[in-house]
Amino acid sequence: MGKLYAIALNTCREAIRNRVFASLILFAIALLLLTLAVSSASLHEEIRLMKDVGLFLISVFSVLIAVFIGTSLVYKEIERKTIYTIAPKPVFRFQILLGKYLGLAITMAFQIALMGGVLGLNFVMLDAPFGLSMVQALWLIYVEVLIVIAVAMVFSSFSTPFLSGLLTVGVFVVGRFVDELLTLRLTKPEESTPFTNGVETAVRAIARVLPDLSLFDVTPQVVYAQPISWSFVGYSTGYGFCFSAVLLVIASFLFSRRDFV
């Protein structure tokens, strides 16, 4: 645990000092404050607009930060050759990867809490309650980000940051539409052909492998004041933790077989 703590702490410091992290979070906070002015101009829809835009900005910027930093953590260690100072020590490679994951997870928790606090300040200025559903939505955004970090770790364990970033963003975008891809129909049943059936089967197979990130998008329920059950939050959280664990096992296996020379 001491080794994981040391690696995680060092990763937190490195992530916070990253210029991309600082730039994106400042830009996101500025947009959240701008949202207050925009929502004030709407007619009797201030709260709904604040919830919709606020959660969207927090989700998007959290994912972008996770992708930018997550895909470069391992690569930077190899590029700067600092991995050579860690590898000879009595620490397993999976501990290095897990420590970096935990460090970035802690950093993202701080970042989402900060942006959630700014959004909550906007609600105070509008004299509106923040609401339990907003807290649940922020938590689900964080669990979604944990999956994105794990996906980034998998790709970065064998690829470059640029390609890893593209693949991770692709997984995120497709993952948001997994529920729709599972029921995809290119043509009517009576008009189907072997080609269309094959394409539909392939798309569904890919959708079953990718994480179902639609579970973590509860913005419509929050905006229209629909209650979010704790059982759903618990199920989504368990799903996110289990999927992240599987991805970390895959990333650890790939990283352990990587040649640093």
Can you tell me about this structure?
The protein has one domain. 77% of the residues lie in helices and 0% in strands. The chain is built from twelve helices and no strands. The longest helix has 33 residues, at 93-125. The model has no long low-confidence stretch (mean pLDDT 82).
- Detail the poorly predicted runs: none
What structural class do helix, strand and pairing data support? Answer: mainly alpha
* Overall outline: globular
The percentage helix is: over 70%
Number of helices: 12
Number of strands: 0
The overall pLDDT average reads 82
Largest sheet: none
Explain briefly what this protein structure is.
By secondary structure, the protein is mainly alpha-helical. It contains twelve helices and no strands.
Structural features:
261 residues, globular, single chain, 12 helices, mainly alpha
How do the helices and strands line up, and which of them pair or pack?
Layout: H1 2-17, H2 19-41, H3 46-70, H4 73-79, H5 83-86, H6 93-125, H7 132-156, H8 161-175, H9 178-181, H10 194-209, H11 219-223, H12 230-256
